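Worked example 2:
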Amino acid sequence: MDRIRELRAFIAIVETGSMAAAAGAQKLTPSAMSKLLKRIEDGLGVSLISRTTRSLTLTSEGEAYYEHARLIVDAIDALDSDLAARGGHPSGLLRISCGIAFGLSSLCQVVPEFARRYPDVKVDLQLTDRVVDLVGERIDVAVRIGNLAASSLIQRRIGEMRRTICASPAYLAEAGVPASPEELAGHRIIALSGIADFDHWSFRSAEGIMRRIGVMPTLISDAAAGVLEMGLAGGGIFRLGDNITRPHILAGRLVALLDDVHDPAPVPISLVYPPELKRSPRVRAFVDFLIERFTA
């Protein structure tokens, strides 16, 4: 077995946490995988993994070996990708990061089509509301919602979404329907934290005058999915992107409110990726695919 394959096998053991799972991923028997690990350790003269009947734990030497092995294998994969780029054929592993709510409401619906179009690309879609470090966490491309700060990452705007104010029928039956923005003061408000206008919502008067109305959130979440679930449960009035709320409004689970006067600024939807990946066929293919789907 060549050295690179040994490194890949060791990485598989660490990342799956199971000799059997790693063996399956590398198309080896568990016995062969165990012998391979012993051969690596014997060659180095150190123990890399402490093994019990229930768990595998990296030793300090194993942690160092894993970090270096990961760097070496990633560099080889990047080289392969760069060479493939010259042929323009998308292939290999594409790691994508996206917020949970947008991922569930929009991205998960189109990724299968991308996979069918590019069968040689393996997609790893990671849904999290945390802003990930693309380079440090080896993410190829991330979907970001909202205005972006300047950075060294390449930014491609693929669309925008409008926000909708809504509440569940059960909440409105209990608390009444607000007839004007001013009446929001008498209602429970659910808000998404981490955005500039989470406690000030914009409205346009009949004369076309823009005004911002302060709201006092009583329920706050840092995840749009959390805001949605609290709203569906009758927690109060909230505001989220229409791509998230529309299916629930159409199904009667939510009711749109103050739609004739609510006038928020559109929220940008963007892709970001490291500049060194701009020639990667799989990244280019995914960027072009999402632009096609979200700007059509």
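The chain has a mean pLDDT of 88. The chain has nine helices and 14 strands.
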